[in-house]
Design brief:
single chain, Nuclear Transport Factor 2, Chain: A, 436 residues, two-stranded antiparallel sheet, ABC transporter involved in vitamin B12 uptake, BtuC, five-stranded antiparallel sheet, alpha+beta
C-alpha cells in the first residue's frame, strides 16, 4: 500500500518551530569539562570513607565562570548536606580547565590547599605536567582535546539521526521518541557494575530495538496510515517521548546513578607548556563502539538485501510490495534497527561520561533531528554528515566563544539551511529515491 510522503519543507519547519519553542529553556548551559572537574573536587574535601551523593549542579547566578555543586556526604561521622562553588579562569580557551578558586559551606579553600588539590588530587582530571606521547603546542593541543570529544558527539548524534532518516525514508514522518529511547537505555546501564558491562551493552541495544519496534507498531504506523498529515505523528511521538521521560525519571530514583570507574585512567596524548590533550580508555571504547555502529549501518544500507529493499520502498512503496518484498517485516526491521542505533548511542554516552539524566533526551533528540535535516532528511549518509557538521560547530563555538549561546548558533544554522538549502547537504528537497 503506498504511503504518502510528506514534503520535507513542512516537516523541517515543524521541527524548527518545535526547537524554537524549547530554546528559551537552554539559557543555563554547563560546560561538561568544568562540571567533571567540579564533581571531582567534592570527594577530595572529605575522608576517604565518605561517599558523595550529588544533589544538583548549576551555574552560579551573576558569575560567568562559577558552578555550584550541592551534595550529601555520608561517612563514619554521619550524613549531611554540603555545597561548594568552583570558579574557573575563563569561559573559553584553555582557561576553562583552570580551577582558580573553591568556596564551600565551611569556608573558602586556601591558596596552598587549592594548589595541593589541583596538583595531586585532580591529577587524573586536569593534570598538564605528565609527559605526553607527542609534543604539540598549547593551542594545537587544546584543539586536539576538543576534536577528541567532537568525534564521540558526532557519532552519538549520527546514530540517533539515523533513526530519523530510516523512518522518514519510509513514511516521510519524524519519530521524536528516539532520544528518550537512548536515554532510557543509558539509565539502565548506569546501574550496572563493571563485570556486567558487556552484557548490559547487548541487553541495552536489544531493549532499545524492542521498545522502538513497539512504539512503531502501536503508535507510529497506525497513525501514519490513517492520515497524510505529519502533525498527528509528531504529536503522538512527542507524547510517547514525554511518557518515556517521566517513566525513566520516576524509576531512576532521586539521585543520579554513576557507572563504576572503568578504564578512566587518562592517556596523555599530545601537548606541552602547561596543557596536554588527554583521553581515557573509556572514551576510546565509547567512540569505537559508536563509529563501529556507524560503519556497520552504512554497510548494511549499501550492500545488504535490507538496504536494497529499504531504498526501493522509499522510492515506490506499491511497486516494492508487488515485487514480493515483505513490507511488514521491512517496516518492523526499520524501527528495530533505528532503536538499536539509539540504544548504542545511549550506551556510548554512559561509557564515556559515567552517567546521564532522563531529562537529557530532549536536547539530544533536537540535536540529532537538526543533524538529519541539515544532512538531508531521509538520507542515512546525510544524517552522519549533518551530525559531523553540528558536532563540529558545537565544539568550535564552545571552545572559542560563550558556551551559553551554543544552542542559539545551532538553531540558527538550521534556519540558514532551511532558507538557503532546504534539501540539506545532499539536497533532499523533495520526495525522491533514497539512493546511498
Amino acid at each position: 500500500m503506498p504511503v504518502p510522503i510528506a514534503r520535507t519543507g513542512s516537516v523541517a519547519r515543524l521541527a524548527l518551530f518545535l526547537g524554537l519553542l524549547l530554546l528559551p529553556g537552554c539559557g543555563s548551559v554547563i560546560d561538561a569539562d568544568q562540571a567533571r572537574i567540579c564533581r571531582a573536587v567534592a570527594p577530595l574535601l572529605h575522608d576517604e570513607e565518605t561517599t558523595i551523593a550529588e544533589s544538583s549542579l548549576n551555574p552560579v547566578a551573576g558569575s560567568a565562570t562559577g558552578l555550584r555543586l550541592s551534595y550529601r556526604a555520608r561517612g563514619p561521622l554521619g550524613s549531611g548536606p554540603h555545597w561548594l562553588i568552583c570558579s574557573f579562569a575563563s569561559q573559553t580557551g584553555a582557561g576553562r580547565f583552570d580551577l582558580v578558586a573553591v568556596d564551600t559551606d565551611r569556608g573558602p579553600v586556601g591558596g596552598i590547599k587549592l594548589h595541593i588539590l589541583k596538583r595531586w588530587g585532580l591529577s587524573d582530571v586536569a593534570e598538564a605536567s605528565r609527559p605526553a606521547l607527542f609534543a604539540l603546542g598549547k593551542r594545537e593541543a587544546y584543539w586536539l582535546q576538543q576534536a577528541l570529544g567532537g568525534v564521540l558527539m558526532a557519532s552519538v548524534y549520527g546514530l540517533i539521526a539515523t533513526g530519523f532518516a530510516l523512518v522518514h525514508g519510509l513514511y516521510g514522518r519524524i519519530n521524536l521518541a528516539f532520544g528518550e529511547i537512548a536515554i532510557g537505555v543509558a539509565g539502565v546501564h548506569a546501574r550496572l557494575g563493571p563485570g556486567t558491562l558487556a552484557l548490559a551493552l547487548v541487553f541495552g541495544v536489544a531493549a532499545a530495538a524492542l521498545l522502538s519496534w513497539i512504539v512503531g507498531r502501536a503508535v507510529f504506523v497506525p497513525i501514519a496510515r490513517r492520515t497524510s498529515s505529519p502533525q498527528p505523528v509528531l504529536i503522538a511521538t512527542i507524547a510517547v517521548a514525554i511518557t518515556l521521560s517521566e517513566a525513566f525519571r520516576i524509576t531512576s530514583g532521586s539521585r543520579e546513578n554513576w557507572l563504576p570507574a572503568l578504564l578512566n585512567r587518562p592517556i596523555y596524548i599530545a601537548g606541552q607548556d602547561g596543557f596536554v590533550a588527554t583521553a581515557t580508555p573509556a572514551q576510546f571504547l565509547a567512540t569505537g563502539l559508536a563509529l563501529t555502529g556507524v560503519s556497520t549501518l552504512l554497510g548494511l544500507i549499501a550492500f545488504s538485501p535490507y538496504g536494497r529493499n529499504w531504498r526501493a520502498y522509499a522510492q515506490d512503496p506499491l511497486m516494492t510490495a508487488l515485487l514480493g518484498v515483505r513490507v511488514p517485516l521491512l517496516v518492523g526491521t526499520t524501527f528495530a534497527l533505528a532503536g538499536a542505533c539509539a540504544g548504542l548511542a545511549g550506551a556510548a554516552m554512559v561509557i564515556a561520561y559515567g552517567t546521564i539524566s532522563p531529562g537529557d533526551g530532549l536536547a539530544i533528540t533536537l540535536k540529532a533531528l537538526i543533524s538529519a535535516i541539515i544532512g538531508g532528511i531521509g538520507s542515512v549518509p546525510g544524517a552522519f554528515l549533518g551530525a559531523a557538521l553540528v558536532a563540529g560547530v558545537e565544539i568550535v563555538w564552545s571552545s572559542a566563544f560563550d558556551i551559553a549561546y551554543r544552542d542559539v548558533v545551532i538553531y540558527s544554522l538550521l534556519a540558514a539551511f532551511l532558507l538557503l538549502r532546504p534539501g540539506g547537504l545532499l539536497n533532499r528537497a523533495a520526495a525522491s529515491p533514497r539512493e546511498f
